[in-house]
Amino acid sequence: MRGRVIPFDMPKSSATKGRILDAAEALFMEHGFEATTLRQITAAAGVNLAAVHYHFGSKEELFEAVLRRRLDPMNQERLALLTRYEHESAPKPLSCEKILAAMFIPALRLARDPERGGKNFLRLLGRAYADPAPFIRRFLSEQYAVMIARFKAAFGRALPQLPKKELTWRLHFVMGALSFTLAGTDALKLIAALSRGETANDEVLLRRLAPFLIAGLKAPLPDLSELDGEPARESLAP
User: Fold this and answer.
1) Does residue 183 carry a pLDDT above 90?
2) Burial, 13: exposed, middle or buried (Cβ in 10 Å; 0-12, 13-18, 19+)?
3) All domains of the chain, ordered by start, with CATH?
């Protein structure tokens, strides 16, 4: 971790690091990045400020570590699922439905698993998407560039009629709807209600959401001939 010496007492150090991450995740979710202080985090974790600096460095690095702890495994699942679906579909391009499933199902599994942060982490992720701090946007786009590129390429093959710029905009809208479905308070209540049904599973919610998203992805191209200087959007949130 950038030149930090690994302590001899690894179990104790690992437990301290976990407490800091848990406390930071809860406080960042409740107050946002800017309003949360390191002193609040140390008080909640029962550690001193030196422990935070030792394990993570700055508050920015701690926030990134909180995101990485949950996002890395989820995005690895997404890529594994996308790869599997592509192999099953070959040589035909993967359908939009299957691409959305590869994005959505691992995130929904995380939402239902409190050991992996559950719905609280997804609320934090929703905050991160909306946070104006440049380092957060930069981190999300750079850290998960490979995953973003894989999904963009898959959608590009599924929707060859769309210009790249239009596809980028539509994927931005798709991710907004997906993020709200997973992180919005009302949506989480719907997910919980679905989970109580014996036959309810990830596919049920996906089948409700997918037609809405696919209709937007496949909609006719808008007439933008009268607009000049339309800005391009070049990011797809993880």
Assistant:
1) no
2) middle
3) 1-57 (1.10.10.60), 67-238 (1.10.357.10)
